[in-house]
Amino acid sequence: MAIVYTKSKRIESLDTIRGLAALSVLFGHTMGVFDWPNSLASWTRFPVVNMLFDGLSGVAMFFVLSGFVLSRPYLAPTPVGQTPRQLFVPTFYIRRITRIWIPWFCVFCLSAVLRAYLYHPYDTIPPMSEWIGRFWHVPLTLSSFLRQCAFALHDPQRLLLPQDWSLGVELKGSALIPVFLFLVRRHILYLVGAGVLLFVCLPNAIEPYYVSFVLGVIAARYHDAIEAKMRRLTFASKCGILAFGILLYQSRLVASHFLAGSLLVDHVVWCICSIGCVFIITTSVASNRIQRALSHGVLVFLGKISYSVYLLQLVVLLCVLPPLVYGLNRVGIQNTLVLMPLANCIAVLLTVATAAFTYRIVELPSIEFGHWISTFIQRRFLKTPKTPKLPKPAV
């Protein structure tokens, strides 16, 4: 029987969580553009407030959400009378590549043009940071271009989109989803064992990022059972579980205060943060009140354009924010207490506005293209056998 690709029902609250994670990456990068006085920037390291600026934990949320959302359609219980959704690996990969690579390439080309004709360092108050000053100085060569197109270049100083390291992980993690689905359908311990092997055996080569995808798949596998149990809990109990998830999500902040930084500590913190992401996702989906709070139109739209926000943020931070701050300095606005909120508001408004435009003209067409080519291939290679005609009844 032919399995033709159809769009699965979206859970809007998950869009909002993705959008808030993208916003935390944007706020974190915006704070890194300038050398703010430590007395002023220290408030961003307060518990809970830090979630708005912890971009790395936001990326962990991206990966857990990807594992959950990509595997959920194939693990959800099938209604009576319907055929379980089958995974056709070629079109699964095609949809992921068109969804991620086409918008990335458009912003990549835009960055190349803007670096050539618009980018310029500025002498601002506060001064631009050493971190932001490392980017966009190495000329683009053919080798660099090809390696960036394959997400095979890992030197931030040579990248036009320095934040796209996570997109290479996203594509590789997506490529592993069919394997994870195969394992989790056999037995949960097979998938848990794969996650342990990914973390223990090759930590230096691949980092702990793919553990996040494993946790997302596990959450999708047991989502219905967990949701049924959680819906019987009181709202206060659900809020307590959500608070516990947020505590785990903030493990990076805790580790920065009490543990010396090391590769092993970073990997363990990443895994703990990813577990916190699972608690946040499952609690948000299991509570009608939390879902309603997260399903506000503006927040959902922010989630839908979150990929463009992620792609465009450093373009705005490199080409637009420094000259704007420089202009404010020239008209006498040099107080960092005023400039910090202004810089963050300007960065968010410009990035979101540009991302909304890019979502319409780049992301949506690339999504539709992926759907079209997937449907075409599945109908071409998974043909439905013709039903034999029954003889007409005798009159």
Description:
There is one protein chain. By secondary structure, this protein is mainly α. It has one domain. 71% of the residues lie in helices and 0% in strands. The chain is built from 19 helices and no strands. It has helices at 12-33, 38-41, 55-75, 89-117, 130-133, 142-149, 165-186, 188-200, 203-206, 209-221, 223-230, 235-249, 251-258, 263-286, 288-294, 297-304, 306-319, 321-330, 336-381. Helix 3 packs parallel to helix 7 (165-186), helix 3 (55-75) runs parallel beside helix 10 and helix 12 packs antiparallel against helix 14. The longest helix is centred in the last third of the chain and has 46 residues, at 336-381. It is globular and about 70 Å long. It starts with 11 loop residues before the first helix and ends in a 14-residue tail after the last helix. Residues 1-8 and 384-388 have low confidence and may be disordered.
